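Q: Hi! First time doing this. I have a protein sequence and I read that you can turn it into a structure. Is that right? Here it is:
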Amino acid sequence: MMTESWGQFKTFEGKKFEALDPEFTKEVSTLIGGQDLTACFQCAKCSAGCPVSDKVNIQIHEVMRMLVFGFKDVLDTDMIWLCTTCYTCQERCPQGIDITDILFGLKNMAFRAGKAPSGYLSARQGLYDTGRLYPPTEWEREDLELDPVPEFNIDDTKKLLDKMGLMKLEDDTQ
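A: Yes, that's right. Below is the predicted 3D structure, encoded as structure tokens:
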């Protein structure tokens, strides 16, 4: 197990996990792809193909085992935030488990529980405030021989994001 990680989460070494929570496992099984959760037999093909396996504090096959055992601590792993959504784990799974889809659901659960990396929160706020994840610079556009960035109405963007509930994801309402 790693002693450091790329994100805000650190190693689980020495951590004492809470008792099993079968209700958490049941909740995860209702996520898209979660219906096949218990089919995982820990072959670790998902982890062997994962491009971020050397950057995370827990491997994807371990995440799957934590879900089956009902460990809510899985929401504290950086795997759910560092997953590149390349679907390699899902493609390699001999049981056909929709692993990446489950990770999307876990990310939402973690966010609602207030366990999002600060970079994610600031990117979300920037998108809401400006309509962009980062401001383009004129020299970048010139280097690429692109036209100047067109102006757009941020009010329309905010209206769309408000309708989607982007800034209210912490609420338990869905």
